[in-house]
């Protein structure tokens, strides 16, 4: 038996969240005595795929069909399903993402596999196959027992330590049969901000709220983010007012982030915003209102005017680089 | 055109989450239940699409009798009829099977729901329903326009958007800004009382997972405040204490 990991890639490299999924599978494989095989779809160099080995994959199956370059959900589900059956796997591990979720859901039906999403720990075997996952947007955890033979685990980002000491994996080409129906949803174009650090995957996130007073002041957030190597986010009122694009909205109904450090500037900390960030390892809050509820959820805080503090902080960060 | 919108009945986003019975049950004390916020976006867009095409709009929930006020609210917002599949929604595959069954029976052209429920956050039900019905699924959808039987869709992906064309029928998981939430008006609330709300039995009890317990995360320690004129100390803490730089 083996564990199959569906890995996503971008800009010619495996995504960090997918490497986390491989790391998770690798720890699971060690526990269950199973080999970890990864599958990647679409155009990417085999040398880049071999890097899945560093996180613990022994082998990577590469379906190089160009029709899979775009993340067409049904086609990806179909290809991964075939890889699952051909590799004799009984467990599929993947990273939660806009594509991963959709692929996992379809495969749960196709493979008759119980699915646990937002998984944050390895399964425990007492009383069945018990998996801990994050629920209520990070406000609680639940233990879910998967009762089927085949299993799918969608791993929450930043919940797993990245393993990086493995040797390169062997890459093999895999052929799959794709039907016309797999491409019923046609991707006509994509619009991606490639020059920025991706917000959902960033290790540090700097977010601004209404305290910034207007979009014209966003350079303060951007400069700080740059000095920290961070992605930028914003609160809901900011994206609602059109100061920043919707995909930067962090919170319960926006992007959920789980970085090592979340920096909130001029954000009061409404419960809906906290829900999107409470999985962060450390939270730094900068706000001129000492009563801002965000301070209660923070590890570090500065009470003061963002317009004064941000330039000083940016300079101090540049000084240590 | 026949539209089906599937809604969840979930705690208000400001609810304090607590558990009872030795951490085996969600504590409903003082909790207000609402239409899932993402489902509310799906419903709002569905009302607009129904009005454009003079079709029909059915809203469905898998839940016990306590969810009926939530379904009535969806009727007040503009759905024409409601279906309640009388069962506790214990597992996403179970819920998806119910939706797929009644969606097939009703012959719907468009099946919308939220990108995820805000209680279990799985985001899996729409994909499962689509697979069961052999339809395409798209999620999270932030824009959906129909021209004849072809939808043009904008889907949010990591750090951007993807644009798609999909022919009816299909399943979509929705999120903002697909439409503005609709607040029921008095006429809507009055008419919702007389609109049909059909209670049906679950078609199977097939499930692939079961939930055995809950736990709250450990409480956060108190914040360490740093003087606003001493950003160097903050940088030092981030670098050497938290080790995040």
From TrEMBL, chain A:
Residues 3-187 form the Electron transfer flavoprotein alpha/beta-subunit N-terminal domain. Keywords: Electron transport, Transport. It holds the Pfam family ETF. The keyword Metal-binding does not apply. Belongs to the ETF alpha-subunit/FixB family. This is Electron transfer flavoprotein subunit alpha.
From TrEMBL, chain B:
Signal peptide: none annotated. The keyword DNA-binding does not apply. This is Electron transfer flavoprotein subunit beta. InterPro entries: ETF_a/b_N (IPR014730), ETF_b (IPR012255), ETF_beta_N (IPR033948), Rossmann-like_a/b/a_fold (IPR014729). Keywords: Electron transport, Transport. CDD domains: ETF_beta. Belongs to the ETF beta-subunit/FixA family. Transmembrane segments: none annotated. Residues 23-209 form the Electron transfer flavoprotein alpha/beta-subunit N-terminal domain. It comes from the Bacteria.
